[in-house]
Design goal:
The protein has 1 helix and 19 strands. By secondary structure, the chain is an all-beta fold. It has a 19-stranded antiparallel β-sheet that branches. The model is unreliable at 95-106 and 250-262 (pLDDT under 50).
Length: 262
């Protein structure tokens, strides 16, 4: 059930059309959408707006430049989206019930910011977000901005603990994946992130670069966001790994400083 409210409205009963404006709000279960105006076509069962809107499920908020609402299909489509998601296992900073406060799932990352010129689906009945296509950029927000992790990919899909869950517990990023944190860079075809454990798995011609090594390649690279533990699947290749405190690739300087042999 979709409830529409607005300060002003014009209704054409003959053509089954209505235009709502000024402080329009659409509410369905946990989902609330605030926007400037909304066109309702009863014949097609479509409510749409080409103005900026803000959609929230009570925890996460998404802004979009245009929106289509299909109440009969329990579907919302948002376009040119940006927003912030609370990573699973953390509480909003303005949470009032301190007795129910959870331990942070990640010691470093609490929020996920997203920005995409593509579209994002939201199921009204389950309040579950779907897949963002046409390019997306994510930023995992840490207490220390220097630790922020940025990720880009062709598309991202939100994952959930079970069929009844409405809060995402992770993401799957597909196609031309690249993530960066400081001097640390990873690339691959698929990146899976579990918000609760902090585990990530990079696969599909996976590679990494950092101050510790010039390059690493492996079928699968596993990295934990909380502990920074790195695990490589069998068949890996490591090029110029740092030893004894020397930066990777500093072979020439190291050789010049060695004592001459006999």
């Amino acid at each position: 059930e979709l409830l529409l409210t607005a300060a002003r409205g014009v209704c054409d009963l003959e053509n089954e059309f209505a235009l709502l404006s000024d402080g329009v709000r659409a509410t369905a279960g946990k989902v609330t959408i605030d926007l400037h105006d909304l066109h309702w076509d009863n014949k097609t069962g479509l409510a749409s707006s080409d103005t900026q809107s803000e959609t929230t499920d009570g925890t996460n908020t998404i802004k979009s430049s245009a929106i289509d609402i299909y109440p009969n299909e329990d579907l919302i489509e948002m376009f040119e989206v940006s927003g912030r998601f609370l990573m699973a296992g953390t509480e909003p900073e303005d949470a009032t019930d301190q007795s129910a406060e959870k331990e942070p799932a990640s010691q470093r990352y609490k929020y996920l910011d997203l920005d995409s010129g593509g579209g994002l689906d939201l199921n009204i009945a389950s309040a579950r977000f779907g897949t963002i296509r046409d390019g997306v950029r994510l930023t995992l927000i840490a207490d220390n901005p220097a630790d922020n992790l940025t990720i880009s990919a062709d598309e991202v899909e939100f994952t959930y603990a079970n069929e009844d869950a409405s809060e995402p517990t992770g993401v799957r990023l597909n196609g031309n994946v690249e993530f960066k944190s400081g001097a640390f860079i990873g690339r691959g075809d698929l990146l899976v992130i579990d918000f609760e454990s902090g585990d990530t798995e990079l696969s599909g011609d996976a590679s990494m670069e950092s101050e510790l090594f010039e390059a690493v390649r492996a079928p699968v690279i596993r990295y934990n966001l909380n502990t920074e533990a790195l695990r490589l699947a069998p068949g890996n290749q490591i090029r110029r790994m740092q030893l004894f405190g020397r930066p990777a690739g500093d072979d020439d300087n190291a050789a010049a400083s060695r004592p001459a042999g006999r």
